[in-house]
């Protein structure tokens, strides 16, 4: 990676923080209306150990939910990609399921599995993030040009061989595109549950306690911490994409 | 049935099931290709030429009639076929060399990996792709991809090479280059071939027999032999005899399209 690729985004972040600070200063906003970046520093200093433990809670539950979403989404995508009947049968269900705002599902799940905070959180992260993966895998598989199949089938290859040698690798760029969307969605899912659950844990719960205690800089500090976690996870996916589907990148 | 035919297609009838009932595409198709022969199949668009290739490859089983290769009835895909299409369908995540070697990962082969690689390099050199073994398909031009696709179709020494309009999407000069490469390949790597094409010049330049199919449902309408008189050059396409053959074929296509009476 060239220095430019690191410096340009860092400069953009620095500019953003300066603009934010300047805006708050020029408008003369109090910190309960809009905290400025310099207001956040004391919040991080005071609660750094909480940020670490809560951040870890949020991170592992998001990643676990995401991993389940990958497993389930890929399996569902495969079923729909290979079978026309399954595609016709499952699409309306899937779209309907996805159309229900997860914010309305959160209280239901929180009541259904009351007390199972980790389970609830992972479940919502999973539910909110598997849809793009399932759709992308199913489209990737069902749009495989018939010639690709014919080349291998005419040699006597089995369906499984066709899947491993052609269909799977060919679907990877779409899969990673969907995974990037799912990463951010999974964070939304985790935080929705953390905020709503009584006695919750994670950054969402920290946000909620900031609200309860009218500690506005803390609330903003949580938002920034979430953004940082999201960026980290996103770039991990980008790195995986380079390794497994780097061939699809034509800009290099 | 002639005993010396490697590919023998006799009285083949085939329909596709569609929402509005069966759609007959082939009805009374007869094509014989002797061992080492090269037959071009021409006909109006949508007349079922590609269906023919799928029948020979064993990807489709005809409703009636039979397709035999080496006297054995084709009832399922067998590894003795190599295919190349208009779309080169190279795997973009593999290098050219890995693409060419793909069939060796599937068909039972006596070649070791090293021998397979040596053979792939030899084929690539034969089609003028020496030095491109480590490139990805996205780094190659359309004509080069098609040449790599041809090598992949030949790597496992198939008895039958099926070419379904492999040069259809290329510009005229690249196409003529590939015609000459085909002759070079055939001299070095003998195969029995079926070429589906829309290009009459291509058919008489490459094949030793041209089969004209009628409009849908297709039957064998006309057969023209093109004697093997040694190495062909592009100049041969501009001789009176070539012009006469093209005229006859042109007329047969028009008959097949239903534009003129036979």
From TrEMBL, chain A:
Pfam families: BPD_transp_1
InterPro entries, sorted: MetI-like, MetI-like_sf
Subcellular location: Cell membrane
Annotated SUPFAM superfamilies: MetI-like (SSF161098)
Source organism, top-level taxon: Bacteria
Transmembrane regions: 59-82, 89-116, 122-144, 175-196, 216-240
UniProt entry keywords in alphabetical sequence: Cell membrane, Membrane, Transmembrane, Transmembrane helix, Transport
Gene Ontology BP, a term: transmembrane transport
Principal subcellular localization: membrane
PROSITE patterns with a match to the protein in the record: ABC_TM1
GO cellular component labels: plasma membrane
Domain ABC transmembrane type-1: 55-237
Membrane topology annotation: Multi-pass membrane protein
PANTHER family in the cross-refs: ABC TRANSPORTER PERMEASE PROTEIN, ALKANE SULFONATE ABC TRANSPORTER-RELATED, MEMBRANE SUBUNIT
Protein family membership: Belongs to the binding-protein-dependent transport system permease family.
Protein name per Swiss-Prot or TrEMBL: NitT/TauT family transport system permease protein
UniProtKB/TrEMBL annotation, chain B:
Stored Gene3D superfamilies: P-loop containing nucleotide triphosphate hydrolases
Keyword presence, Electron transport: no
Source species, domain of life: Bacteria
Molecular functions per Gene Ontology: ATP binding; ATP hydrolysis activity
Family: Belongs to the ABC transporter superfamily.
Protein name per its UniProtKB record: NitT/TauT family transport system ATP-binding protein
SUPFAM superfamilies recorded: P-loop containing nucleoside triphosphate hydrolases
Annotated ranges, domain ABC transporter: 7-240
UniProt keyword annotations, A-Z: ATP-binding, Nucleotide-binding, Transport
InterPro entries reported for this sequence: AAA+_ATPase, ABC_transporter-like_ATP-bd, ABC_transporter-like_CS, ABC_transporter_ATP-bind, P-loop_NTPase
Cross-referenced Pfam families: ABC_tran (PF00005)
